[in-house]
Amino acid sequence: MELPHSLTSPTSPCVDLKSLDNLQLCDREGTRSADSGIGELDELPVPQQIRISNITCDSFKISWDMESRGRDRITHYFIDLNKKENKNSNKFKHKDVPTKLVAKAVPLPMTVRGHWFLSPRTEYTVAVQTAAKQPDGDYAVSQWSEIIEFCTADYSTVHLNQLLEKAEAIAGRMLPFTVFYRNQQKEYFHQARDAQCNRMLPSVKDNSGSHGSPISGKLEGIFFSCNTEFNTGKPPQDSPYGPYRFQVRAEVLFNQNTNIYFGDFYCMYTAYHYVILVLAPEGSSGDSFCKGRLPALDRSGNRFLTCAEAEDGSLSFRHAQDVILEVIYTEPVDLSLGTVAQISGHQLMSLSTVNAKKDPSCKVCNISVGR
């Protein structure tokens, strides 16, 4: 496929790009290009009933119906692919590249693939023209088809395994730890005690991290930390999430009945890198969600978070030194299983990862399909 720079978009001039947020299906008269070198050929059929299938995070198949009249004259397809307007979308270097694709007229459905202009979990609009290349090199074109919408998919396990390999490369040596902890404001724990039967309840994960991660906005869980200070071997006294800390013995959440999954690897324009892991009790709803979606890790032999059993049945735990682990536990946790106390450190809000956007230019934590 090549990218001609002078083709007229089907959304111009009769559709304001800002109105595409509310566009579901636009049945409208197509416009022929008035650009130099683009002519009209009434005999060329207009694509109808556009169909998108086999959608992945960086590819899709497209097909359509056409009248038989003039079909034998078609030499090329023009595909106008645009990201839907979204003021909150991640910024990345190819965001504003016009993606007017020119493809030779191959049998349908045709696969459109390209990580540099397709991002995971992103809404796009697409319209199609048929074209006939003339002896002088110019094109004659049909009217544009209707405009339709589709959304690319999450990362597949293949892509997540690529992220996993990158994360393993920088995880560093393993350090011992004994507790998981969760920092929040005092009101959070009052709410758990008074309105939630003394339990912390799972909530839907926010959109922090990799844009294509299948857990964002879908997996329900409770975030915990386990990183320790190198010099003390204990949890740090500073936190970005609140001055009150729930602390629980590691074996309560992570034991021989707990499955562990890799969820994400990202950074936020800093030198720190984060790894998201999911702890799901065997057979739980969270475990069912993760199976087939996330790479499963060996409980006692991975590079990030391990639980090893000694001959006497006791458990020991280690965490990776050189990444910040964010651990999602998928089930409710009763406050009586641990303790709540005020920490003596500061709230370092700049370290918060709530809805944090991944740095799309980082070569350490990005893969070929984008953010």
Supply the key terms.
371 residues; mainly beta; Immunoglobulin-like; 2 domains; seven-stranded mixed sheet; PHYHIP/PHYHIPL; Fibronectin type-III domain-containing protein; Ig-like_fold; FN3_dom
What would you note in describing this structure?
With 371 residues, this protein is mainly beta. It has two domains: 17-151, Immunoglobulins (Immunoglobulin-like, Sandwich), CATH 2.60.40; 157-351, no CATH class. It has helices at residues 157-170, 186-195, 250-253, 285-290, and strands at 25-26, 38-40, 48-53, 59-65, 76-83, 99-104, 110-113, 123-133, 139-141, 147-151, 174-177, 179-184, 199-200, 203-204, 220-224, 244-249, 258-266, 274-281, 296-297, 305-309, 315-320, 324-329, 333-334, 339-342. Strand 8 and strand 9 (139-141) form a beta hairpin. It is elongated, with a radius of gyration of 26 Å. The two termini are 23 Å apart. Residues 1-9, 11-37 and 87-98 have low confidence and may be disordered.
Structure summary, number of beta strands: 24
The total count of helices amounts to 4
- SSE succession: EEEEEEEEEEHEEHEEEEHEEHEEEEEE
Shape estimate: elongated
Which regions are unreliable across 5 or more consecutive residues at pLDDT < 50? 1-9, 11-37, 87-98
Question: What count of domains describes the coordinates?
Answer: 2
Largest sheet, if any? 7 strands, mixed
Q: Find the structural class using helix and strand composition.
A: mainly beta
Task: Report the C-alpha radius of gyration, rounded.
Answer: 26 Å
Q: Report strand %.
A: 25-35%
Mean residue pLDDT: 84
N- and C-termini, Cα separation: 23 Å
State the helicity in percent bands: under 10%
